[in-house]
Design goal:
23% helix; eight-stranded antiparallel β-sheet; Elongation Factor Tu (Ef-tu), domain 3; alpha+beta; 37% strand; 26 strands; 4 domains; six-stranded antiparallel β-sheet; Alpha-Beta Plaits
Length: 441
């Protein structure tokens, strides 16, 4: 009843809507005569201005040229330029309590004005910090490496600039035997991961390789210590592990009636346990408890495919549960590629190993020598495929004569391939890192 009737096309009801906004939405609280207290709600890096902060003035006011202090770092700066967005930048001489505007202070250090921090008057030791924002913990982890090792410094600078206005992104340095120096990054989900990678490639002109997404596990060691593990390479030796706990999510799927069977079959195959089913007319809401690792890899595409695009999904983390998990390693040309290692459920290890080997056989280009692809569970090889070598027809010039002539040429070629295999290196394309873990279903 209280909803205003508004047409953006004709302009009808716009004035009434503006009046309602003024009367129904409370004015910002704050005292313009109190000491300065402002919250940094966003930050970004400008190549010419340094760190530009979007601030909300809670109490007091700030003027151009005024000296202020960042609460967490204790560093003092001068307000070189302040203003508002309306929608473009408009310079102002003063921002008072209740206003939101931008602040430029020539801060060159990227971590000099973190989002959620408080700005106070320089020299003020009495005013306390504002509550800030609740810290968001990442749910999905992946490693990123530069194709060209010379781009590592640029990659590090790009990540530090991105984290300015995306506090949910976490990263730490990582070294891979196969891929060199890179970073282990934490994301809110697979979409967040794809957006970050796309921004790094487009905005900072980086050529990146990213590994398969994984989740954070809890590992209980034999000595009673519990460690967090978001990377298969961090997993302790099997004889040091008492149990591994994986994150479980409450997954709600809304789908039309005719696709209920397809959804239940798919969720059950992903180790899901059905908890609830509710009918809303011709729609059904199905609730499953599922491992997060099953949801982040390929699940969304499979649900959309099995319901012709009609289903919608949401999930929420509910805790960690003990599970029978193990690590599988991938060897390419007899060299272990740690960036391809995965933690999987033991009951699915053989099936997953066959899928990975078959996918990599299609994704890795043929070389001048045979490339063996092996999937190992501990020291045992559980699956193997071979990328066959490119071969020249060395017997084409033999039109006749004894068979030993052809055999001699083939043996010579075989020896050459064997020598090439000893010294040859296999280049793994980015497509292989992104798609080797996907199910062929």
């Amino acid at each position: 009843e209280s909803s205003p009737l508004v047409s953006a096309k004709t302009g009808e009801g716009i004035e009434g809507l503006l009046d309602m906004l003024i009367t129904d939405i409370p004015s910002p609280e704050g005292n313009p005569d109190s000491p300065l207290q402002a919250l940094i709600i966003d930050s970004w890096f400008d190549s010419y201005l340094g760190v530009v902060s979007l601030v909300r003035i809670k109490n007091g006011s700030i003027k151009t040229g005024q000296k202020f202090k960042i609460y967490s770092t204790g560093q003092s700066h001068n307000a070189d330029e302040i203003g508002i967005f309306s929608p473009k930048k408009i310079k102002r001489d003063i921002l008072s309590a209740g206003e939101v505007g931008y602040l430029v202070a020539g801060i060159k250090n990227i971590k000099g004005a973190p989002v959620g921090d408080t700005i106070v008057q320089s020299g003020d030791e009495v005013t306390i910090a504002l509550p800030g924002f609740k810290k968001v913990n990442p749910k999905v982890f992946a490693s990123m490496f530069t194709v060209n090792s010379d781009d590592y410094e640029r990659f590090r600078d790009a990540l530090s600039k991105l984290i300015l206005n995306d506090s949910s992104l976490l990263y730490e340095p990582e070294v891979s035997d196969a891929l060199g120096f890179g970073f282990r990054c934490g994301f809110l989900g697979t979409l967040h991961m794809e957006v970050i990678r796309e921004r790094l490639e487009r905005e900072y002109d980086l050529d990146l390789i990213s590994t398969a997404p994984s989740v954070e596990y809890e590992v209980l060691k034999n000595d009673g210590a519990i460690i967090k593990c978001d990377n298969p390479s961090q997993l302790p030796a099997p004889n040091d592990i008492d149990e591994i706990r994986e994150p479980i999510v409450n997954t709600t799927i809304l789908t039309p009636n005719e696709y209920v069977g397809n959804v239940i079959t798919l969720c059950t195959s992903k180790r899901g346990v059905q908890k609830d089913m509710t009918y809303f007319g011709n729609q059904v809401s199905i609730v499953f408890e599922m491992p997060l690792s099953s949801v982040i890899v390929d699940f969304f595409d499979q649900i959309k495919s099995s319901t012709k695009g009609f289903a919608s999904i949401e999930y929420q983390l509910i805790g960690f549960v003990k599970s029978d998990l193990t690590k599988i390693d991938i060897l390419i040309n007899n060299q272990k590629i740690d960036a391809l290692s995965m933690i999987v459920h033991k009951s699915f290890s053989n099936q997953k190993a066959r899928e990975i080997a078959a996918n990599l056989q299609k994704l890795i280009p043929r070389q001048m020598f045979d490339v063996p692809i092996q999937v190992a569970l501990g020291s045992k090889i559980i699956s193997r495929e071979t990328v066959k070598a490119l071969r020249k027809n060395v017997t084409a010039k033999c039109y006749g004569g004894d068979i030993t002539r052809k055999k001699k040429l083939l043996e010579k070629q075989k020896d050459g391939k064997k020598k090439m295999k000893q010294f040859g290196k296999v280049s793994i394309p980015q497509d292989a890192f992104l798609n080797y873990f996907k199910s062929g279903e």
